[in-house]
Design a protein that fits this description.
Elements: E1 2-3, E2 12-19, E3 27-28, E4 32-39, E5 42-46, E6 49-53, E7 58-61, E8 67-71, E9 77-84, H1 95-99, E10 111-112, H2 117-134, H3 140-165, H4 172-187, H5 193-201, H6 205-216, H7 220-238, H8 243-250, H9 255-266, H10 270-278
Parallel strand pairs: 1-3
Antiparallel strand pairs: 2-9, 4-7, 4-9, 5-6, 5-8, 7-10
Helix pairs in contact: 2-3, 4-5, 4-6, 7-8, 7-9, 7-10
Length: 279
Amino acid sequence: MYVEQFRLSRNFAFFRGRGTDEAHELHIHDCLEVGALLEDELEYRFGGRTYEGRPGDVFLCRPFEPHWSFAKPGGRFEQIIALFTPAAIRSLPDRGRLLAPFYAGVDVPPVIPGDAPQARAIVNAARRAMETQERAEPAWVTRQFMYLIDILLQVDDYALATQRAGAGSEPPSRAEAAEWVGLLLDCYRDPEAGEKLIQGAGVGRTLLYREFRNMTGLSPQAFINRLRVHTAMDLLRSTDEPMIELAESSGFQSLSAFNKQFRAYVGCAPREYRSRFRT
């Protein structure tokens, strides 16, 4: 397993991805990812789960989630991949809601089947985003950003439809848990983010922690730390902020806490990460 450091010139990008049946390691990266499969079939593995992909299917990948994809024996596949960081939509009013499906992994499956209307809309938006870049159309970066927002709105629509379909068999607290994720996505840099979650959830601490872990696989505090590290990685790549200021901008209350959590998630110190990326 290895960490892939994408050198994005901005906080979102579209590119064409092609693959064969050659085996390779599971890999992880810190970007959020949407893949729209265009041609041929593939197998996509998220950790220990494997999914069959057909043209028109859409795959969602969360940051730090081990995954790989390869074609069926003798085949080759093509997909359009959108990579972005939370900073890409920082200025949008509904940013927490649009990011929640990428973190609420239990209720939102990583595959949107090609026969779903949302998948068709995502594939179309991905094609247009790629074409506007390849043709160097006027203001193509802005146009791509509009297509990215369209894709995230379609993902949100599918997540909502999936949640409604399963509402009859799930406890009410599970439906609320997606809102808790969105709440933290909006306030994770606040020193009191954990307390704000407890106050805004409207349920007991024990139920909150249990349902939150069921949905995300993490405790609320671990989730907060991961988001803070994710923000720090983006700032390390894109700014020259001093470490202490960067730690504060990411939500950490001390440089020692920042260094500890960053090393735990990324496997190296922040300065080393910045140096590797710049190199």
